[in-house]
Write a structure and sequence with these properties.
The protein is α+β, with helices and mostly antiparallel strands. It has 17 helices and 14 strands. 42% of the residues are buried.
Length: 525
Amino acid sequence: MAAYFRPATAVRHASFGPASFGREWAPSLEETIEPGRSSRRHRWPAGDLEARVARRTAGRLARVARALPQARPALLALSSTLASLPPEARRRHLRGPDLRGFLGEAEIWIAALRLAAAPGRHAEAARARRLFDLVSRTEHLVTLVPGGRLERGFAAGVARFARARLRHALYDLGAFVLGLRLAFPSPRALVIDLECREEPEQGRPRDRVDLGAVLAPAGPLALAGDRLAAGMRLRARLAGRTLVLRPRAAPRGVGPPRPGWTTVIPAAGSRLRHRAAAGRGEGGSAASARAGAGPVLVQRSTIPGTPILLAPALVSRPRHLWVGRDVPELGERLARALRLVRLAWPAGHDEILRRTFMVVPVREEGLVSYSLAARPGISFINVFGKTLVDLADDLLHETAHHRLHDIQETAGLLAPGPAAHEVQAFDSPWRGTRRPLHGILHGAYTFLYRAELLRRLLRLARARPRRLPLHLGRRGPRWLRRELDHERAMLARALRQLDGAAREGLLTPAGRALLRAMRAMRLGI
């Protein structure tokens, strides 16, 4: 990748240095349940959690830039763009799924490469065990250990896989930087490499290049077109308001790409010129005449009235997950579910908008919803056969997971060691199985949100008996009361187990502060 940038030191201090996010606040967790509530003993300024996450992301970016030289051009372009943004916009992008997803990938595979390259033949067995522990935290364990046992050449295979994952992560980072530059123009030219690749974790089909969850006048954007295919690599050059794409490599089984792609047709509301002539060496006026032959800039789907992206549905099979088609009318249904949350709990509605960046529908029998710490802000929800109350519950539930992941990233809640992180020594009231302490904490935290939503819906149903049934359907006040009583009982059991863990020293001071806040909210439900 190549680009034109200001000097590295100036850029780094402009947006990756800690000073750009204000002073570090002590981790007060009294407001983790209901945004806007402060106790007399603790004051947590609005946006403090976001500031701390953004601050940490900036530090991680600086470390990855030092450890991964091939990422420096894109990271320097990113840094110069972030430095020009208003603080709130900069904070949003630093805590969003694009950068933190890239960092999660980069950090784990950089560590894998270092382990795989560690010298010393006598330490090969120990190195293999450490590598296994590392890759077992990812979803790629079956790929790297297909036979269920470590074979000779395991370290070399992990190294090859790590290099491929880092290449893919760099392409994703480049696409985000391009999306950011389209939204916030810079006088400096940007040259970046892109790749068409299906990515279920990001809800991205194989024949499209998504340009990040960027808030812009034109909305979140993507590059699409009939001539794009899985495996195709592109070089993008953005100079002023002209974007030029050229194919660099074709997917396997397809002939070499024809040279001479041209300026990209802009999406409505974007800052690109329409059919603007490219510069000399990029096709000139002939390129402008052929502009319709290449990819076009399109607006990605969002939930109406919100900045939340809406991806095509994932189709899940026992050994494969792939990106399918858009779900008809899903955006309107999710918008109505959000309105239901806003009617019952305005602060909960605001929290969804603050922490949920994308909803990925999943078609899988028995699945309710889930989220990944490695992809913060992305909610995977089984939307099929759900009522509006179910969808409202799912949106809020995954938002609670996102918030707790943010808290865990900035304040350690569990004591170090396997007793708190690995041993399945606690009974989950919701799953009916043994779970590690981490699972019990997430369960109690997120189902507190559900119980509070049910309590507020029940109160709203009594206050507006004619209006709310239109949203609830057949699920009236009696169902709400039954579900709320059930949730209270489950929460009481989970909180007793967390109290026991605290007595055994398995929670840190920050974890015990969070537990106190959770107990206080349980008493108010």
